[in-house]
Amino acid sequence: MDEAVNGTVPLPRIERQSPAGHLAERCAATGSEQTVTLYEVPFLAQVELRVDPGEERCAARTAGEFLGCALPEPGRWTGNGRPYALWSGPGWYLIVDDTATGRGLTAGLAAAVGGEYGAQCASVVDVSAHRTVLELRGPRARDVLAHGCDLDLHPRVFGPGNYTHTLLAKATVGLQQLDAGPTYRLLVRASYADYLVNWLLDAMHEHTAVH
Hints:
Layout: H1 2-6, H2 24-29, E1 37-41, E2 45-51, H3 56-67, E3 77-78, E4 84-89, E5 92-97, H4 102-115, E6 122-126, E7 131-137, H5 141-146, E8 163-168, E9 171-179, E10 183-189, H6 193-208
Antiparallel strand pairs: 1-7, 2-5, 2-6, 3-4, 4-5, 7-10, 8-9, 9-10
């Protein structure tokens, strides 16, 4: 009572909650490594880099030096380690890193692209809270996506190293293929995460049910 009066009662601890965290148990219980699995990869640092057209060569070089990889060509992503860069449009890239904070990545990248000539040659914005990342992997992953995506995902057309924006079950996503497994990463708006995870889990049943 005295603690409450004196204002010394400790505040309750607030656990950080990811957009699809409440579905983690259902994801873990659905599918298998032999068919297809779905997991959220939460809290990745995501930074949007928009390059001024007249400064693209300067920004590409300085950003590449900071990131340790060249900025990608259209429809591609680059980066064998962390971080990696996704092509989002002309002069527009999304930088993703699972080993840094959004604030730290933003500060470092902004200093790299804006410091060489004493003038900012690009816009660097922390957008980590805008999206979460879902990872769909396994031999049947491509079949699951085909239920709601009109994109041609045949390996000859879309394979490791590719990245694009598309519609999946009427939700706009960024679609990245990591390897030939195949393993896909879906970048989805936080507000659509619940809907899309439930849709993917339902689509997976056809390919994971034991007959």
